[in-house]
Amino acid sequence: MITPASKFKKLPARYMAVIMPLILSGMMSAIVSLISTLKSLGLQPDLLGIWLGTWLISWIVAFPTVLVVLPVARRFTLLFVQSPQP
């Protein structure tokens, strides 16, 4: 069965260390910036435009932060969870 995603050429596996944090930071910063924008401004007619601006700024900060913090979080997690076997 052919799915829509299978029509596109995939990146090599070595890009996983960058693509996954890029997607994760985008999703997390979108959610957090939306909640923060709603809490501070409430429902506004131009909420979407305001939120997209705050999201972009948040993502610019979040992505490099995730790249730096993720290895530290992995090491800290291994204090509580068994290391995966190869």
TrEMBL record:
Keyword Transmembrane helix in annotation: yes
Pfam family, any one: DUF2798
TM stretches of this protein: 12-36, 48-70
Domain of life (superkingdom): Bacteria
Keywords: Membrane, Transmembrane, Transmembrane helix
Name of the featured protein: DUF2798 domain-containing protein
Lineage: Bacteria, Pseudomonadati, Pseudomonadota, Gammaproteobacteria, Moraxellales
